[in-house]
Amino acid sequence: MNLLRVEGITKYFGGLAANKDITFEVEEGELLGVIGPNGAGKTTLFEQISGFKKPSEGRVILDGKDITAQRPDKICSAGLARTFQIVKTFPELTVLENVMIGSFHRESSSRAARKYAGEVLERVRFSHKADALGKELTLAGRKRVEVARAVATRPRILLLDEAMAGLNKQESAEAVEVVRDLRKEVTVVMIEHVMEILMPLSDRIVVLVEGQKLLEGTPEEIASNPQVLAAYLGERFAARNK
Amino acid sequence: MNVNGLPQGSSVWGMVRQYLPWVLFLGFFALYPIVFDSPSDHTLGIKMMWFAIAATGWNMLGGFAGQISLGHATFFGVGAYAVALADEYEWNPWLAMILGMGVAAIIAVIIGWPVFRLKGHYFTIATIGTGEIAFLLVRNSEFLGGTEGFLMRSDEGFLNFYWGGRQKWEFYYLGFVLLLLAVVSTVMISKSRMGYYLQAIRNNQEAASSLGVPIAKYKQLAFIYSAVFVSIAGSYFAQQLQFAGPDEAFSLDTSIRITIIAVIGGVLSKWGPMIGAIVFLFLSEWTNIRFGGNGFDLVIFGFIVMVMAAFEPNGLIGLGNRFAHLLEKAKS
Amino acid sequence: MSDLIQTFVNGLMLGSVLALVAVGLTVIYGVVDIVNFAHGEFVMAGMYATFVASSQFGFDPLLAMPVSAAVVGLIGVLSFFTFVRPAMRGTLLSQIFVTFGLMIFMRGVAQTLFGSNFETIQGAWLSSQRITIGDIVMPGPQLAAAVGSLVCTGAIGWFIYRTTTGKALQATSQDPDAALMMGINPNKMFGLAWLIGGASTGVAAALVANYQPVHPNVGLAFGLTAFVIVALGGFGSIGGAFLAAFAVGMLENFSAFYGDSAYKQVWIFGLFILVMLFRPQGLLGRA
Questions:
Q1: CB-facing half-sphere around the CA of C173: CA atoms within 13 A
Q2: Residues on chain C touching B291 (C-beta within 8 angstroms)
């Protein structure tokens, strides 16, 4: 049985549809990639799944329960955690404390929360920065903290929104390794703009274009699909002519 | 900027940094009436106590959770009027104070429902609004003494929550106990899940909520806590003055004063409000003596608050931390 | 019936003055993204400037208008470049505290310089004028304040929506970084917003000083009402502030007419909290 089911999600802003009738499923233990050119509605989709925006139509089902438009903290309790494309690190808290906010979700005592936060930092290979303040981190560091915090809530499914955008080659290679480790224990849905990063990581990929699901399939199927290439090439062409 | 008083490493310096504030703070407040032993000094000390209790209470919401309220005079007034009414109808002032704490908590829930839908400066403006509404309602209520308020005539003694003689050290130490209550509970909260959650809310609400923090619930808890302690300060204040009036207890000026105290001391630290109370008291007394009570203290406080906001938002504690940081650097 | 019309006319006259005060606040918020908690104190400063110009130098309050505008405009610009600009880089706490500090500071300065007494301007030319239509009376000072405020509010609207500099202001308010790329210096624009916000408030203050005594805490009521109007209209929206100002002017007069005038502010804040509950972005604000 699938863990997450997104059913006919549609979102209008004013008269414009940012998402139109998007349906897909995520199996337990799977890593699903979501790609699409800028403005394809990827982040809007995540915002609706995680409860930050209310869908105009459609439903989100997590493990058989309807979680559509519930409060983000309720959705977190139901077992879905996310990161933000524009990072929202707690600037005045240390890295360890940032992660503790996540681990407090399942641990009521500070001691236990601190211990578990330490373990999570270990897992995402960021223990050496435990005492640094959020505002002192580089972008790569902040993105790592975002992931660690989300993992510390012990989700069943993790939504990563461009966890590698803006990182240099080495940083994103490290981040890829972290994701490879994490997916052994948790189901992951990952938005990434760069196809080259997502292809080797994903079990399946959903392609969004102009707010609609263009297709889904294995990375091989996606890579050889002429429509996908057209969508991406079209964007590059447009970018050149700006 | 370490708000939780976590030990900074296990060095001796770390231990000193953790326990020094306790020693300094307890020492100062415990010894104050012995070192400064004239009745007028004691009166000042008592003032310092209610400043510190009120600002510590305010800071749970304003500092930890980052929700700047300019309407806390309402709770100060509830505390003050609770004991004033008790005096009027000959109830026990202690019971009245506890009743006042309950009323303050209930009002906090009622006010919290609309105002917590607003964020940032919208929230602040809304609290000015609720504060002014309460002020006007009380001022125009016959039952609550209208514009005159209540003159009280408590008998002396512990049960009556009053000592009025020449030496007022008993009343001072009573305030000290109440302050301890405020500080110890603040420290306990700051080290608990709630303390961390409030800071997360101050730092970034969306991120906090994505990590499972029920924002509204924790803001409301902080609001209740701060309302209760500000009302305690109000009761203590009215017992000392033997008076409760709308302009003294419910006005925006009272809210502003509580806020200044916390801001000057440093809102990101549990010690800030106490430092603020000491500095506020002595600066205002000094300007009163030096320049006469003509508003020059406001010039100084306003200036300090502007400078702090622009250059060191964590007030005197922030300045102290910077200084300590420099020292540490110089040593290594 | 004529009572009702009189109340309505009073509401209109009050509304136009409030509109000018509120527009000053909303211009600053719209461009600089900071709420000026000292805005009521800007009114107070303008009234004192008018009072000094009239009592010390014999200016009629009408002639003192430019003086008041210059004084308050200068206060605005100075506060921006000294304290507000550094605070803008800080957290939300800093941004709230900085103008909160300014409010306390200005009150203190007023008390220190002028004491806590109520001061009234004597012998203003307007105070002996009045227009009567049937039973409806429009005292000169109030009428002039209303007309002057309307003209000034219109001038600000024209400046912001019709001139190149005004468009640069708008661009800065939408996205300072993008404005910088277009060759607009955001700091200049921020300073300009404080100048406009201050000067227009100075004009309103000079007009009000014709019929209302001044004291160090006179700003409180103006500031609070201006916050409510700006929040009702939607922060940063000039049109919204304009409409909301008349709504508040009416509410204030009619609630006093039908009920106890002591409660008129309760109605205003009650309205504010109601609107915030159901339409937090204000009447014309962007969601």
A1: 24
A2: 112
Task: Report yes or no: B192 at the A interface, CB cutoff 8 Å.
Answer: yes
Q: What's C214's DSSP letter?
A: B
Q: Cα B31 to chain center, whole Å? A: 21
pLDDT tens by residue, C6-50: 888 888 888 889 999 999 999 998 888 888 999 999 999 999 999
Would you call A52 and B206 a contact, using CB atoms and an 8 Å cutoff?
yes
How is chain A split into domains, by residue range? 2-240
Q: Is residue B31 part of a domain?
A: yes
**Is the residue at B54 inside a domain?**
yes
How many residues are there in chain A?
242
Report the number of distinct structural domains present in chain B: 1
Domain range enclosing B243:
12-331
List chains touching C (3+ CB pairs under 8 A).
B
CB contact under 8 A, A90 and B199: yes
Mutate to test the interface with B, among A52, A86, A92 (most CBs of B within 10 A): A92
Q: Which residue has the higher pLDDT, A162 or B20?
A: A162
Question: Are the beta carbons of B196 and A73 separated by less than 8 Å?
Answer: no
Minimum CA–CA partner of B207 in chain A = A88
Name the A residues in 200-229 with CB < 8 Å from any B CB. Answer: none
Spatial distance between the Cα atoms of A150 and B303, rounded to a whole number of angstroms: 42
Residue B6 resides in a domain: no
The answer to whether residue B4 scores a pLDDT higher than 50 is: no
Judge whether B57 lies within some domain. yes
Domain segments of chain C as ranges: 13-116+125-218
- CATH level 2 (architecture), domain A2-240: 3-Layer(aba) Sandwich (3.40)
3-state secondary structure of B314: coil
Q: Do B307 and C269 touch (CB under 8 A)?
A: no
CA dihedral sign of residues A110, A111, A116, A121: positive
Amino acid letter, residue A99? V
For B:240-279, CB contacts with A below 8 A are 268
Q: Across the interface, do A92 and B202 touch by the CB < 8 Å criterion?
A: yes
Q: Taking CB atoms and an 8 Å limit, are B211 and A76 in contact across chains? A: yes
State residue A236's pLDDT score.
Answer: 55
Backbone angles phi, psi at A107, to 5 degrees: -125, 125
Residue A234 pLDDT: 60
> For residue A63, what pLDDT is reported?
92
